Every structure is written in structure tokens, then in C-alpha cells.
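Practice problem: Cell division protein ZapA
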Amino acid sequence: MEMRRITINIAGRNYPLNVPATEEETLRRVGKQIETMIREFEANFDVKDKQDALAMCALKLGANAEVHQLNNEKIINNTNERLTKLNQLLDEIEK
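Answer key — C-alpha cells:
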């Protein structure tokens, strides 16, 4: 796997990373999204401290990830239930 050395700037600090080439673009996009979120928090909530803005970003991103995880679990459970019902129907047909 090809690794790349990149630098992501977040809240005025550079973070050097070694990342798989396939993840480089994703990490750059996420870095830009975090920068955008920081600016929005600073503008909308009168946040002066970058640490506070970063904490708010972490909370928002964590909450979003949790919501997506719960939605995925619901979809998987629903799919499993439907597959179980289909298998039961197929079993009845075979009898």
C-alpha cells in the first residue's frame, strides 16, 4: 500500500500525517470541513478560543457519527428481519 506524507492545517496548526494514498483526498476534505465548522462556530456562537471551537467540532462530528451508526444498525436489523421472513416463505414453499 502506497503511503503519502501530507500536512493538514486545522485551527492554525499543521498536522503532518502518513496516510494511505487512497485516503489522502478524504482526509483533506475532512480537514477543510473542520476548518469550515470552526469558522461557523466562531461566527455563530462568539467562540474566541480555538480549543472551544475544536471541542464543539468534535462533539458535532461524534454525534453525527453516532446517528449514522444507529441508522445503519436499524437498516441491518430491518434487512435481516426481511431475509428471515423470505427464508421462512421459501421453506414453506419447499414443503
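Discussion: Strands lie at 3-10, 13-20. Students who identified this feature from the C-alpha cells alone can consider the problem solved.
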